[in-house]
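Dear U.,

Please find below the material for section 3 of the report. The protein was modelled together with magnesium ion; I have listed the sequence and SMILES used, followed by the predicted complex structure.
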Amino acid sequence: LTPLSPGSTIGILGGGQLGRMLAIAAAQLGLRCHVYCPDASSPAFEVAAKYTVAPYENTAALDAFAKDCDVVTCEFENVPAATLARVSTQCVVRPSAHSFAICQDRRAEKELAVKLGIDSAAWRDVPTLAELDTALGELAVPSILKSRHLGYDGKGQARLDSMSSTSRAWAAIGNAPSILEALVPFAREVSVIAVRDAGGNFAAYDVTENIHKGGILHTSRVPASIAAETAQSAVDIALRIGNALGHVGVFAVEMFVIEEGGAERLLVNEIAPRVHNTGHWTIEGCVASQFEAHIRAVAGWPLPDTARIADAEMTNLIGADAEAWAAIAAEPGAALHLYGKTEARSGRKMGHVTRLRMYSKPV
Ligand SMILES: Nc1ncnc2c1ncn2[C@@H]1O[C@H](COP(=O)(O)OP(=O)(O)O)[C@@H](O)[C@H]1O
Ligand SMILES: [Mg+2]
């Protein structure tokens, strides 16, 4: 694919806030977006040149969408495989279905890590409830049962200790094929937001330090308080994963940092084949944001400069948090983002704020 000229159309499957921020970044580069989502009130629709409201199973709508686009990408990882396959027959899809196949499945992610010799938390495959008791016996308790598919924001997970009922945990995660994972006594959580193009060129943003509350991302901060060598290893892990996937576009690798005898060690937690909540700070904190980086990669443009120009702390505005919008809008150094969602259900990401400070070198 030669670089798409300005005026070309990028299709986005999924219409959430990530699609919204992708469409805004594309518009800045003179590229048009066509957003496809079954939900009529999708946040991305109101900033896109074009949109289609149709189910992911509607082949006629998918065909018309693919025909209208010069390249198609996705803003969420759980796009049905059949949808990707259908669109792929008529339009270039970036990243390819392979990235999604791996990242939609926690077991496949774990197997990839094993294959690459990258450490992650100890785990066992739990295809049925019967295997859960065995797995629980083998892994040191406490541990976490995670459904292989469709989990997000801590959903599809249940913690287990020696007192827990395995059948209750199995029911809690929806009686679905799962993995059991040892609970990691991490010192901190970090993520790498990276971008790879079709030619294998790679760039990464500064490692981000993340705080989750109740399984949902609360705050992301740069620079992360980790050693320079740890940060380098984190980026190297992302590079190896990106190459193994043959990924085109932005992806994120979530990691745990454990401290052992004064040294830091990394365990890979999750891979997201898309722009990521822990990279929102790049909008104001960098020369070019993760959203621009993704658009450039899928459009065949040169990768952007990922250099960081400020220290930043991003806080999600979840549910009623967004009611403080006026106070945040009045705050010096605060960049407010609201996603245009009308209904503030609890746990729903309504917006975020990135607070900037003067740049300081990573430790
Ligand atoms: N094995 C683990 N040990 C300790 N904490 C964990 C473990 N797995 C998940 N968590 C916590 O739960 C959060 C969400 O889990 P994660 O596996 O990233 O699922 P998702 O982000 O898809 O909901 C993590 O960021 C981390 O804070
Ligand atoms: Mg996660």
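For the text of the report, you could mention the following: The first strand starts at residue 9 and ends at 13.

Regards,
Y.
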